[in-house]
């Protein structure tokens, strides 16, 4: 392309100008010749510029290259976010389809697995209809009062348009209201902008750092109990709690298939416990369950959250682990705790989650990409078993952030800030603070400090083609997947937070956890006995 004696001037036309005036055939010849000699030509051009002091052309050339690179990057980034969006729509479509299928089956048979609960609830139907009417009145009334919003009492599988076609014997979900506890501040200016309620599911439009209170409008009727496996103390507590909730509280109880088998091995008395058969039923579980109780440590809370790919019912986490950062309830007092939770109101922490998609370079269409995977703590991209440095190009809303060269990178929620991110040198952040932590793992650089980014950004981490090795991604420490050069992870805040019940309130529970769990800033107090300011 560039000839040594062809600086851009009317008297000395450039090869580009020459090319423009050539026929396509001639042009092709010159192009292949130029490609063969391009390296030499660039060298010559540089030398030429240096020799003759004509820096302008070099600058112009590099500007042009930069513009082309920028345009190419924009196209790639646009494609990645379009793919992520398409995958999200596909997931929504599949969820809706599964819901419709389930509903059709139920209307046809009314004798399926879930209908056990329907029958149990049939006796309460008239009361519930009255409640439902009362609640819909209340829902209108509540707007403009202290509550964020009251959700409708749900009918199982109901869609608005065809509610009249639904038989009366349908299960209903307990209704509740959320409100801000503003400690003396009566203003509720922002509440309608921040949390929205549709059909009993919590979604956040924007995030808040205020304390939220949940008040039942109709009594909770169905509890899902999730337990840490292989623990004798958990198994014994589970047996006791299931019996108490059934006999004293008249609640419907769901457990995992494994736990149902354990309970039935213990005694046939437990045959009333319900479970789900497959992933399709699991997808709809949030429409049946009013409350989740976890018996275990933080891992069991993560497990509970991972079961719900959309909205999550409120979780009451009982501590039967060693650290218990997110498990503020003592199992010895479970009766008092559950009595108070079932009565309400409950202070809750809305723990934000990240939704992640893997965009494969080899994918032929967006449908071949993977996701969304939802995490409550963090998504980690690391070097796995490779002994090479990871090389990760990171973009935030299409702006280049940095290239991570080290063991890896953690993208963490604020709830996860006290987990792996903390171990990698990230800050501890109150779980109600909206944000995404960007924490490198052992970066090979003296100047790489962790970042906290706002919650509305989309992050993209790409394994570049010139990377020496593959990278590995894991979600809350589980589900490892390989990222080949050219693959990317796209990550943003999910619209489905995990509401966890507080022992006192969000802030007191957080501070208690960092003191008791991590012994934060534990130091002997300096004695009074010594020198002091006069
Ligand atoms: N170097 C590290 O600190 C490291 C390494 C790998 C994974 N992890 C963490 O382990 C989590 C998975 O937990 P698990 O129980 O399934 O695995 P696990 O059984 O290996 O437990 C990991 C530990 O992390 C604690 N933990 C989990 N979430 C926490 C949180 N939000 N705040 C404070 N501590 C928390 C747990 O109580 C437990 O002690 C991952 O999400 C990751 O954050 C940490
Ligand atoms: N219901 C479940 N089914 C399968 N695995 C589970 C379930 N609940 C928890 N786990 C897994 O069991 C492991 C241990 O759970 P958990 O962290 O609750 O207990 P722990 O290790 O004793 O507590 P801590 O983390 O406080 O030390 C975690 O990896 C978690 O993912």
Portion in strands: 15-25%
The structural class is: alpha+beta
Oligomeric status: single chain
How is the CATH topology of the largest domain named?
Rossmann fold
* Cα-based radius of gyration, to the nearest Å: 30 Å
Name of the level-1 CATH class of the largest domain: Alpha Beta
Q: Kindly state the percentage of residues in helix.
A: 25-40%
Main pleated sheet: 11 strands, antiparallel
Number of helical regions: 14
Are there runs of 5+ residues with pLDDT below 50, and where?
1-36, 112-146, 149-169, 187-192
Question: What CATH architecture of the largest domain would you give?
Answer: 3-Layer(aba) Sandwich
Number of strands: 25
Q: How many structural units, i.e. domains?
A: 3
GO biological process, one term: NADP+ biosynthetic process
EC number: 2.7.1.23
Pfam family, one: NAD_kinase_C
Enzyme class: transferase
């Amino acid at each position: 392309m560039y000839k040594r004696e062809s600086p851009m001037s009317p008297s000395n036309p450039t090869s580009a100008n020459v090319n423009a005036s050539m026929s396509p055939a001639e042009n092709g010849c010159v192009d292949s010749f130029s490609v063969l000699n391009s390296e030499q030509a660039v060298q010559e051009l540089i030398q030429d510029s240096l020799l003759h002091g004509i820096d302008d052309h070099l600058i112009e050339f590099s500007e042009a290259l930069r513009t082309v690179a920028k345009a190419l990057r924009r196209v790639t980034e646009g494609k990645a976010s379009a793919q992520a969006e398409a995958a999200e729509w596909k997931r929504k479509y599949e969820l809706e389809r599964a819901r419709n299928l389930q509903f059709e089956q139920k209307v046809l048979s009314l004798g399926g697995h879930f209908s056990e609960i329907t029958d149990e609830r049939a006796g309460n139907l008239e009361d519930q209809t009255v409640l439902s009417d009362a609640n819909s009145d209340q829902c209108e009334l509540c707007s403009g009062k202290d509550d964020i919003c009251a959700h409708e009492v749900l009918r199982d599988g109901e869609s608005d348009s065809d509610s009249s076609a639904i038989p009366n014997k349908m299960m209903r979900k307990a209704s509740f209201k959320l409100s801000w506890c503003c400690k003396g501040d009566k203003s509720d200016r922002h509440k309608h902008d921040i949390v929205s309620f549709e059909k009993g599911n919590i979604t956040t439009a924007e995030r808040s750092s205020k304390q939220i209170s949940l008040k039942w409008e109709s009594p909770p009727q169905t509890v899902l109990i999730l337990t840490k496996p292989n623990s004798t103390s958990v198994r014994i507590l589970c047996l006791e709690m299931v019996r108490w909730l059934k006999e004293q509280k008249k609640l419907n109880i769901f457990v995992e298939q494994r736990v149902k088998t354990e309970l039935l091995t213990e005694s046939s008395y437990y045959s009333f416990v319900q479970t789900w058969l497959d992933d399709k039923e699991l997808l709809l579980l949030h429409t049946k369950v009013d409350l989740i109780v976890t018996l275990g440590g933080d891992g069991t809370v993560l497990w509970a959250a991972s079961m719900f790919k959309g909205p999550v019912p409120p979780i009451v986490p009982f501590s039967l682990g060693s650290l218990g950062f997110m498990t503020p309830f003592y199992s010895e007092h479970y009766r008092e705790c559950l009595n108070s939770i079932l009565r309400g109101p409950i202070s809750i922490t809305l723990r934000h989650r990240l939704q992640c998609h893997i965009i494969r370079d080899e994918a032929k269409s967006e449908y071949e990409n993977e996701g969304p995977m939802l995490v409550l703590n963090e998504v980690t991209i690391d070097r796995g078993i490779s002994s090479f440095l990871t090389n990760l190009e990171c973009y935030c809303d299409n702006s280049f952030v940095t290239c991570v060269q080290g063991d890896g990178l953690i993208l963490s929620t604020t709830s996860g800030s006290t987990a792996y991110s903390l171990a990698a040198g990230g800050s501890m952040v109150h779980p109600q603070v909206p944000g995404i932590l960007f924490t490198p793992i052992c970066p090979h650089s003296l100047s790489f400090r962790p970042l906290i980014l706002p919650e509305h950004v989309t992050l993209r981490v790409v394994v570049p083609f010139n990377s020496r090795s593959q990278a590995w991604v894991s979600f809350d420490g589980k589900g490892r997947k390989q990222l080949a050069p050219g693959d990317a992870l796209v990550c943003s805040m999910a619209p489905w937070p995990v509401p966890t019940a507080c022992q006192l309130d969000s802030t007191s529970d957080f501070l208690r956890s960092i003191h008791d769990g991590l012994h934060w800033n534990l130091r002997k107090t300096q004695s009074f006995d010594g020198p002091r300011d006069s």
